[in-house]
Design brief:
The complex is a heterodimer of chains A (about 250) and B (about 280).
Chain A: H1 2-14, E1 27-38, E2 41-52, E3 56-60, H2 67-75, E4 82-86, E5 92-94, H3 106-110, H4 115-129, H5 145-157, E6 163-167, H6 175-192, E7 195-200, H7 203-209, E8 212-217, E9 220-225, H8 235-242
Parallel strand pairs in A: 3-7, 3-8, 5-6, 6-7
Antiparallel strand pairs in A: 1-2, 1-4, 8-9
Chain B: H1 2-5, H2 8-47, H3 59-72, H4 74-106, H5 108-123, H6 130-137, H7 141-165, H8 169-177, H9 182-216, H10 225-234, H11 238-266
Helix pairs in contact in B: 3-11, 4-5, 4-7, 4-9, 4-10, 6-7, 7-9, 9-11, 10-11
Classes of the chains: A alpha/beta (about 250), B mainly alpha (about 280).
């Protein structure tokens, strides 16, 4: 009996301090000892992150804290000076701007770089998932901002990524469209189950979307929160406090 | 009753827009009036003997000569020869200019290695190369095609470099993120992105090609529109000379029209070129 308790204790100790519902799912990305310097300035220092498939992680931080640099490193757009990034397969990225090719039709944009494998049918299916069925042959310039961003989301998800990187994807959208996009993204992620890292400076967005919220400060992860463990409305002041915003 | 109750403003607006359409038609007719009048004056002056027909034959005479040459088929042989030279020269010069433009536009190394030399060669007026071209190629077809190629190369090169430079680096990042290979990047991003600028280059190149062709065809030849003109000069056939000048200008206008057609076809996505939403 004593032995069993001891085993249980040791398991509890080896597991992360907070209960992790994604502990047994496969890795989406694992980062260890990441460093990035621009000349004298260290933007990221000895940073570790693990994201598992199906887990939605939000990265909060003031501008200049290195959160975008981290995302770019994970996307393979920026070479770190030290550390390891392990990820199975190529991550998909949605940027703040939709980055649709203006000279390609909507479906060609979705299937971009992989037209043969995905095909118009695959692109159509992905467009249906983001609520844009029937817009396959339209030009991007005929889309609204929210629609264009949904095409960008379809372009990312049609590749069936293990890791989805979102770089402030809703920052340029109006408040109403943003709320709709939050619901859509949650639904799509729960269906496709990639690991997600969203970079944002919107505290409410992070609370609505994420399973885990990381606060980044001067190139390091300064704090980690799980919205599920907090009472509604309880987490917001904590996070704002972490970001140096007084709430009284 | 209905007419009386209709607002006065509507009525006046209608009548004004109707008047505007009529005015536009009137102006368009008027714009053709001056050239036609000039043509009539010229014809009259020739017929009355005010202008010697050896200096300036009557327009009707030129038209007649054109018809004769067309019916014997001679005109089309020469026209074909000229168009073949222009097309071959354009294809060669255009593809070299495009390839160099893409390389220099993209790679700082290619820019360092090639751009200065290309700019130096560009500084030479290509017609100054004429004596050298004759020494190199003789008076064969090759020399003429070379001259046209040279004339085409630089406008295409410069505008391709410019077009490639203007491509949004964010789209290049996208290409990297989606794992596109180089041929796909060129086909899907570089070429369409640089296309507005390249087509501007094409229009300049067409004008240059034409100039080069006119000069090249004054060299010893046995076919081509230029030959027709040189041959006519020997016999003081001013009507034929005038005809060749008109043909050159008509083909020039046609080539420009073709370039503009390309713009509307290839730049359908571009809000400034699109005729309507797809």
């Amino acid at each position: 009996m004593n032995k069993l308790v001891n085993i249980a204790k040791s398991i509890a100790i080896s597991a992360p301090t907070d209960s992790d519902p994604f502990l047994n799912t496969p890795l989406a990305v694992s980062v260890s000892g990441l460093e990035r310097r621009y000349g004298e300035r260290t933007v990221i220092k000895s940073l570790d992150i693990t994201i598992r498939e199906g887990e939605f992680v939000a990265l909060l931080g003031e501008s200049g804290c290195g959160k975008t640099t981290l995302l770019r490193a994970l996307a393979g757009l920026d070479a770190p000076d030290a550390g390891r990034i392990e990820a199975p397969g190529r991550p998909a990225v949605v940027f703040q701007e939709h980055r649709l090719l203006p000279w390609a039709s909507v479906w060609e944009n979705v299937a971009l770089g992989n037209e043969k494998a995905i095909g118009k049918d695959g692109a159509s299916r992905a467009l249906g998932e983001v609520g844009l069925a029937g817009r396959e042959d339209d030009w991007p310039r005929n889309l609204s901002g929210g629609q264009a961003q949904r095409v960008a989301l379809a372009r990312a998800l049609v590749r069936d990524p293990k890791l989805l990187l979102l770089d402030e994807p809703f920052a340029a959208l109006d408040a109403l469209t943003r709320i709709k996009m939050h619901a859509l993204v949650r639904e799509l992620v729960s269906r496709h189950r990639p690991g997600v890292l969203i970079v944002t400076h919107d505290v409410d967005e992070a609370i609505v979307l994420a399973d885990r919220i990381l606060v980044m400060r001067s190139g390091q992860i300064a704090a980690s929160y799980r919205p599920a463990e907090h009472a509604p409305g309880g987490l917001r002041p904590l996070l704002l406090n972490e970001l140096g915003v007084a709430t009284h | 009753m209905a007419e009386i109750s209709s607002p006065l403003q509507d009525f006046s607006a209608d009548s004004r827009s109707g008047f505007a359409i009529k005015k536009a038609t009137l102006y368009s007719v008027l714009s053709w009036l001056a050239p036609l009048l000039l043509l009539c004056l010229w014809e009259a002056a020739s017929r009355l003997g005010l202008i010697a027909s050896q200096v300036m034959p009557a327009p009707s005479r030129v038209a007649e000569t054109g018809w004769q040459l067309a019916t014997t088929g001679e005109l089309f042989v020469h026209l074909g020869a000229s168009l073949l030279r222009a097309t071959a020269g354009f294809a060669i010069g255009g593809s070299i200019g495009f390839a160099l433009g893409v390389a220099v536009g993209f790679s700082p190394l290619a820019h360092a290695l090639l751009d200065r030399s290309i700019q130096m060669i560009r500084a030479i007026p290509f017609l100054a190369m004429l004596p050298l071209v004759i020494v190199w190629f003789g008076v064969d077809e090759a020399g003429k095609i070379f001259l046209v190629s040279l004339a085409v190369l630089f406008p295409i090169y410069i505008n391709t470099v410019l077009g490639v430079r203007q491509i949004d680096p964010k789209l290049m990042e996208l290409a990297k993120v989606t794992g596109m290979n180089w041929p796909a990047i060129v086909r899907r991003i570089i070429l369409p992105g640089a296309m507005p600028s390249i087509l501007t280059g094409v229009r300049y190149a067409l004008a240059h090609a034409w100039l080069a062709l006119v000069i090249a065809e004054t060299l010893a030849t046995t076919e081509g529109i230029g030959f027709l003109a040189m041959d006519a000069r020997e016999f003081l056939q001013t009507d034929v000379i005038l005809l060749t000048i008109i043909i050159y200008s008509v083909i020039g206008v046609g080539a420009d029209g073709l370039a503009r057609l390309l713009e509307t076809r290839l730049l359908g996505w571009h809000p400034n070129f699109a005729k309507g939403a797809r």
